[in-house]
Design brief:
heterodimer; A: Rossmann fold; about 35% helix; B: alpha/beta; 12 helices
Chain lengths: ~280, ~290
């Protein structure tokens, strides 16, 4: 597919558990992500989400099958650095991702490693910090920031490298409600305004409602995928897949069962209030 | 009051340039058998507060009392206090260390001097109290369990001490929806059936609104609000100022009221809220 930024073809991966035992973490996963798309990846712990994410920038290589990033095969060593520049990965715990003593040095770290000219670095760091709303704290020590701020610094460090795709593995799991809101707003802005392709892994169903597409993983396979309205229409048995319904879609389903024909694409409070009033 | 803080203050590293006033003159009480929630932003003082309840931290001002007695006056046995008021830390699975689930859960009872069938009975109670079958899990290695199971094993180790109070500091952080639900269902059942006093620190507003009888809201080291969830979440602007969120169902019901619908606003479960809205729509039709 020409407009796929990421494509996996019958991707398989196994972890060795010691001795002869292996665990099949990914089982024939074929998937295409279109340039500019916002995809959420959900599924219970152990369903293969993080393993899949680590294949998208060649941190892990397939045991069988292929992964293409912008048409480049991750298995080919000569493409690896280019792939990692194009697909940036943000992890769960911001404390494990911060390396420097000031915010701006931290954001510059990746660029310095790429051997970019200092004036260009300075400009890109400034732009990246502005994008995530952290310019005023550029000189601050990262360890004194809140969780949400740290995570936005980590995102800025990736954004400064101008990736075309951002893969975030539970970026809000360690954050309080304000931190979560800040990070989500940043992700959404990068996607809508800067047209960065986003792959966002989360255990919070509420966070998936803004996505273009939700992919549900189960035991190493893609169990189903669709728009938030399709996934949360109440037709799928998400509970048996280890997932939950977000609050408002769950209520809408209960109302339908009680005889009130709430449209299946009712996802948030405002939509439901408008329907009821 | 079972647990009571009186003008309790706590300052980290007093007298140094790094001095931080983490708690400022806190007054609060928790009765036996209650399920209370403690909410607030990261750094608001929640975790510092709950570490005072069993004497892990000593107040730098004011008093920490259990059953009316200041635990830092006279001869409170802190060790005994900690088996009555047990604290489950964040990411408790990092503290699992034994070769079998049985031994891990038995660690506390064994330290209390138990052995043989008495100890086994405690381990059995601990595991079943967290919904883990004794015979299925006893010989398994804690390190080969799923994340959710590990955390329930850690909690089983606490329950095996037969505490009167459990303090849970973000017990479900990082868990998947099913793991979260299973964990909280067991805690909720222990509260109902065993009259366990539960103090839950969490960032999950939907969950705490549904489970807790009373909430304490912290902001920058101060207790800014307390009351039943329905009352607390009516203070929309204050809650938002403290960086927290209103649960979706509260927001929905409050907005419906503002638009002239006669609905209760103190409901937090899908079933209750759906029932209320269906009742309203039936009334409007007739």
């Amino acid at each position: 597919m020409s407009n796929s930024i990421i494509e996996t073809v019958q991707l398989c991966y196994e972890y060795t558990l010691g001795g002869e035992k292996t665990l099949r973490a990914l089982d024939n996963v074929s998937l295409q992500i279109t340039e500019g798309e916002y995809v959420c990846l959900i599924g219970p712990n152990g369903s293969g989400k993080s393993t899949l994410a680590r294949h998208l920038n060649a941190l892990l290589l397939p045991a069988a099958g292929d992964v293409y990033v912008d048409g480049l095969l991750t298995g080919e060593e000569k493409h690896r650095w280019e792939i990692r520049r194009r697909v940036g990965l943000v992890f769960q715990n911001p404390d494990n991702q911060i390396v420097a003593t000031t915010v701006e040095e931290d954001v510059a770290f990746g660029l310095e490693n790429m051997g970019i000219d200092p004036p260009v670095i300075r400009r890109r760091v400034k732009e990246a910090l502005e994008l995530v709303g952290m310019s005023t704290l550029a000189q601050h020590a990262p360890h004194l920031l809140s969780g949400g701020q740290k995570q936005r610094v980590a995102i800025a460090g990736i954004i400064a490298m101008r990736p075309r795709c951002l893969v975030l593995d539970e970026p809000t799991a360690m954050l309080d409600p304000r931190g979560r809101r800040e990070v989500l707003a940043t992700i959404s802005m990068l996607n809508r305004q800067e047209k960065v392709t986003v792959v966002h892994i989360t255990h919070f169903m509420e966070e998936t409602l803004e996505a273009d597409r939700i992919i549900v993983m189960d035991r190493g396979k893609i169990a189903c995928s669709g728009t938030p309205a399709e996934i949360f229409s109440g037709e799928l048995d998400l509970e048996s897949l280890g997932m939950d319904m977000p609050a408002i879609p769950a209520l809408a389903r209960a109302l339908r069962e009680g005889g009130l024909p709430v449209p299946p694409n009712t996802l948030d409070v405002d939509q439901l209030v408008d329907y009821l009033c | 009051m079972l647990i009571e803080a009186r003008d309790l203050s706590y300052t980290y590293m007093p007298g140094t340039p790094f001095q931080v006033e983490a708690l400022k003159k806190i007054n609060l009480g928790i009765a036996r058998g209650e399920f209370v929630g403690v909410i607030g932003e990261t750094g608001s003082g929640k975790s510092t507060l709950v570490q005072h309840f069993n004497g892990l931290l000593k107040p730098t001002g004011g008093e920490m009392c259990v059953e009316g007695k200041n635990i830092w006056h006279g001869e409170t046995n802190l060790r005994k206090l900690r088996s009555r008021i047990a604290l489950l830390f964040q990411f408790p699975e990092h503290q699992l260390f034994e070769e079998t689930v049985f031994n891990d859960v038995a660690f506390g009872p064994r330290n209390l001097g138990m052995s043989g069938s008495e100890m086994e009975q405690r381990v059995r109670f601990g595991l079943t109290s967290m919904g883990l079958d004794f015979d299925t899990y006893r010989d398994r290695s804690p390190f080969h369990l799923s994340g959710g199971e590990k955390r329930r094993v850690a909690m089983a180790g606490i329950m095996a001490m037969r505490p009167e109070v459990v303090v849970l500091d973000e017990p479900t952080a990082g868990m998947d929806p099913v793991g979260r639900r299973k964990f909280m269902e067991q805690v909720s059942r222990l509260h109902r059936e065993e009259k366990l006093t539960v103090i839950l620190v969490t960032h999950n507003m939907e969950e705490i609104a549904r489970l807790a009888e009373r909430l304490f809201v912290f902001n920058r080291g101060e207790l800014v609000l307390q009351g039943q969830p329905a009352e607390v979440f009516k203070s929309v602007s204050l809650i938002k100022e403290t960086g927290l969120e209103i649960p979706a169902f509260s927001e929905l019901l409050q907005q419906l009221r503002q638009r002239g619908k006669e609905v209760r606003t103190d409901l937090f479960t899908v079933g209750d809220v759906a029932g209320e809205i269906l009742k309203l729509s039936r009334e409007e039709r007739t």
